[in-house]
């Protein structure tokens, strides 16, 4: 306790040189980044050619669009609905195959289940490539390779789902506690036995949750894929828009909204039950 | 021949910590050895070496005459089949049924893992699993999810899983450390009954001295990575036993005093 009183007799200014200053000037890199950032902002706004005239004109055109879109045209509802069903099927089939493929991919990509670190890095890079290339670009590639129609859409959703699910499956697998796997390992179980007997059952609830997110994501992207000819409701929407049949377009948008909403509600309900 | 032979075992971790320092002892067939020691004494490291979840730096461990320290994972499997394990945290698969958890114990016995999955397993295997559950007194809970059971029940399921494996050696790592005293006693009694009736060899880590004395044939005590006691239960030196923990307590106190002094000095 004698030591404490020693400190009292010290001059408090003694440590001033070590005291952090109130404000440190930003580093050169920070300056540079700020300048580049501001330059892009100004250039971006400039190129967008924002004028009061265009904005007010835009609002006026929007009003005109709504005027001709209302009331929505219900005459082709059954044709639109069958297109929406096709979109739903693209999303469903693509997600199911995507999820089934994601599981082995995730096992290869997880540090605790991979047969070799090189394989892990390889699969991780492929998965991140699938994820970073946007789905519309995949759709364009598949439309070129397998032709217009739902197959291109399904393939796109598969790739998109693997990019999403394999990553989250693998993250879950890497978090799994070692104990149960060690318990199976200690019985003399094979590597596949350990994975199928402990890793997959433990991760299962999380895999289901992720897969349900994947299907919600797939529905939204399957709607858009039609715009580049990969089948589904997007094709109808594209046609209606380019023929300026706005009342039909509005009907399509309303139906898409309803279907996406229903799918999200169902998947939320299932997720709550599983987790 | 000894069931387990540990010779000059040392383990140095990459950060320089010497967890085990020239540990040697043997376990005879049918013998029940209790491994004692406080936290950080090296007993968990020793256990992980015996179970091959860690490789020692030096020395060797022989189980049934086979040196396991240099074996690959594939070559270890036949040894692992002979060695059943019971863990402190039970290590059940929580979201599966009790029945499935017990069936998984047969994974080393079957050709393909799916043969232990409850819907696909053979009738004999399913019956055997129920017998193992009956032995631990929980056959009526077979359908429950593992995490719905109490701690003591979960450990008994883990023992049933270990029985399913039909082992010759049982390694138990603090099997009652996460149970309340009453459940702990029940689990120890059950484990020992089973071990005795089947004539199994046991190595059991414990930290309660009274329980160690009550159940063990022999006690091996570790301190700072060295064997300080290795005696038959009747030859135990009480003073030595007492020193095992007391001395550590004193050391701990010293450490705390030093820490306190450092803290005050730094202020």
Regions with little confidence, pLDDT below 50 for 5+ residues of chain B: none
Number of helices of chain A: 11
Q: What is the subunit arrangement here?
A: heterodimer
The amount of helix of chain B comes to 25-40%
Judged by helices, strands and strand pairing, the structural class of chain B is: alpha/beta
Q: Terminal Cα separation of chain A, in Å?
A: 55 Å
Strand order of the largest sheet of chain B: 6-7-8-3-9-10
Order of helical and strand elements of chain B:
EEEHEEHEHHHEHEHEEH
- Which word captures the global form of chain A? flat
The biggest beta sheet of chain B reads: 6 strands, mixed
Mean pLDDT of chain A: 87
Overall mean pLDDT score of chain B? 86
Percent in strands of chain A: under 5%
Could you tell me the strand content of chain B as a percent range?
15-25%
Radius of gyration based on Cα positions of chain B: 20 Å
Spatial separation of the terminal alpha carbons of chain B: 61 Å
Report the count of strand segments of chain A. Answer: 0
Keywords (chain B): ATP-binding, Cell membrane, Membrane, Nucleotide-binding, Phosphonate transport, Translocase, Transport
Pfam family, one (chain B): ABC_tran
GO molecular function (chain B): ATP binding
Organism (chain B): Evansella alkalicola
Quick structural gist:
The complex is a heterodimer of chains A (275) and B (267). With 275 residues, chain A is an all-alpha fold.
Give a description of the structure:
The complex is a heterodimer of chains A (275) and B (267). Chain A is mainly alpha-helical. Chain A contains eleven helices and no strands. Chain A has helices at 2-8, 28-47, 52-69, 77-109, 117-132, 135-146, 150-175, 178-185, 191-225, 233-242, 246-274. Chain A is flat. In chain B, strand 7 (169-173), helix 6 (181-198) and strand 8 (201-205) form a beta-alpha-beta unit. Chain B contains eight helices and ten strands. Chain B has 267 residues and is an alpha/beta fold. The interface between A and B is medium-sized, with 25 and 37 residues.
């Amino acid at each position: 306790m004698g030591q404490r009183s020693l400190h009292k007799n010290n001059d408090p200014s003694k440590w001033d040189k070590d005291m952090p200053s109130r404000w440190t000037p930003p580093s050169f890199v920070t300056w540079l980044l700020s300048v580049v950032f501001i330059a892009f902002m100004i250039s971006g706004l400039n190129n967008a050619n924002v004028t009061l005239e265009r904005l007010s004109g835009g609002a006026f055109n929007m009003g005109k669009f709504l005027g001709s879109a209302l009331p929505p045209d219900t005459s082709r509802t059954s044709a639109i609905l069958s297109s929406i069903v096709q979109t739903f099927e693209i999303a469903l089939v693509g997600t199911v195959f995507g999820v089934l493929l994601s599981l082995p991919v995730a096992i290869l990509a997880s540090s605790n289940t991979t047969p070799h670190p090189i394989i892990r890095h390889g699969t991780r890079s492929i998965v991140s490539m699938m994820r970073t290339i946007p789905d519309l670009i995949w759709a364009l590639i598949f439309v070129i390779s397998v032709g217009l129609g739902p197959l291109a859409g399904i393939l796109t959703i598969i790739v998109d789902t693997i990019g999403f699910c394999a990553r989250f499956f693998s993250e879950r697998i890497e978090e799994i506690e070692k104990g149960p796997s060690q318990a199976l390992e200690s019985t003399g179980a094979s590597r596949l036995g350990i994975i199928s007997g402990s890793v997959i059952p433990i991760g299962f609830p999380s895999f289901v949750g992720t897969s349900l997110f994947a299907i919600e994501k797939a529905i939204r992207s399957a709607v858009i894929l039609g715009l580049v000819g990969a089948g589904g409701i997007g094709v109808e929407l594209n046609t209606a828009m380019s023929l300026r049949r706005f009342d039909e377009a509005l009907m399509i948008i309303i139906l898409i909204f309803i279907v996406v909403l229903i799918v999200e509600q169902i998947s939320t309900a299932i997720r709550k039950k599983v987790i | 021949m000894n069931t387990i032979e540990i010779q000059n075992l040392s383990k140095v971790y990459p950060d320089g910590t010497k967890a085990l320092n020239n540990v040697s002892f043997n376990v005879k067939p049918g013998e029940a050895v209790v491994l004692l020691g406080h936290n950080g004494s090296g007993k968990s490291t020793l256990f992980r070496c015996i179970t091959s979840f860690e490789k020692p730096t030096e020395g060797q461990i022989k189980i049934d005459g086979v040196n396991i320290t240099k074996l690959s994972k594939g070559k270890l499997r036949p040894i692992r089949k002979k060695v059943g394990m019971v863990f402190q945290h039970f290590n059940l698969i929580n979201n599966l049924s009790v029945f499935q958890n017990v069936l998984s114990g047969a994974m080393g016995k079957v050709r393909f893992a799916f043969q232990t999955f409850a819907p696909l397993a053979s009738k004999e295997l399913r019956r055997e699993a129920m017998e193992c559950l009956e032995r631990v007194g929980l056959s009526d809970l077979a359908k429950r999810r593992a995490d719905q059971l109490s701690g003591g029940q979960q450990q008994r399921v883990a023992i049933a899983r270990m029985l399913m494996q039909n082992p010759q050696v049982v390694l138990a790592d603090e099997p009652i450390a996460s149970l309340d005293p009453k459940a702990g006693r029940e689990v120890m009694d059950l484990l020992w009954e089973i071990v005795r009736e089947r004539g199994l060899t046991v190595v059991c880590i414990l930290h309660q001295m009274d329980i160690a004395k009550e159940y063990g044939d022999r006690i091996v005590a570790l301190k700072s990575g060295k064997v300080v006691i290795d005696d038959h239960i009747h030859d135990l030196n009480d003073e030595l036993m007492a020193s095992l923990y007391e001395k550590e307590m004193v050391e701990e106190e010293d450490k705390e005093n030093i820490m306190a002094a450092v803290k005050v000095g730094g202020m």
